[in-house]
Design brief:
One of its GO terms (biological process) is DNA topological change. Keywords: DNA-binding. GO terms for molecular function: double-stranded DNA binding. Belongs to the alpha/beta-type SASP family. It is a single chain. The protein is an all-alpha fold. The chain has one domain. Helix content is about 60%, strand content about 0%. The longest helix has 30 residues. The mean pLDDT is about 90.
């Protein structure tokens, strides 16, 4: 599946993929969105998902992205506390 989003530091892609897999509780970052979709009850499948509503798509993307941000903040706070 082609990636449409562009990150500012391309070298960080692998780390972001690992974080995505970690917050979704899966080993494969490509399967993370399907894992989250199953948790929130959204019928996401591989391939075309044009019948999903914006609300359903937002539940998956919001949950995954939100959990990634929470984990990044937690890691930063931990790092700050360690350096003090």
């Amino acid at each position: 599946m082609a990636r449409k989003n562009k990150i500012l530091v391309p070298e960080a892609r692998q780390g972001l993929d690992q974080l995505k897999a970690k917050v979704a509780g899966t080993a494969d970052p490509e399967q993370a969105k399907y894992e989250i979709a199953q948790e929130v009850g959204v019928p996401l499948k591989e391939g075309y998902n044009g019948k999903l509503t914006s609300e359903q798509a937002g539940k998956v993307g919001g949950r995954l992205g939100g959990n990634m941000v929470k984990e990044l903040v937690r890691m930063a706070q931990e790092n700050l506390n360690k350096n003090q």
